Amino acid sequence: MNVVLLRVGIDSGSGGMQGPLFADGSFELIPIPDNKGHGPTCGTTLGVKGTPLSEYFSPSRRGAMSTKSMHLDPEFETFTYGDPTPPKASLRALRAGDMLVFYAGLEGWDH
Description:
single chain, 111 residues, alpha/beta, two-stranded parallel sheet
């Protein structure tokens, strides 16, 4: 069996913050910013708590992030992952019984 660990979502290196982890153990997976400028934005996308994703950014960055497009990878509605970089090409070799584990950097939000 093969196991692949894949970091997803915003972090201090790609977006400048960790995703919010709530006191009840739930979390918000905030996609990394997309510099191509197309697709849904952090201001128009509501998270699991019904809050626009841009609200999780610091007040000084909130305005800019509300119009920033997001890079939706992985995309959990149609179960696609489109990052074409060489390290991710190995995902094609996964077979039944292998494990693909997504993990994210999170930080306490409301506690």
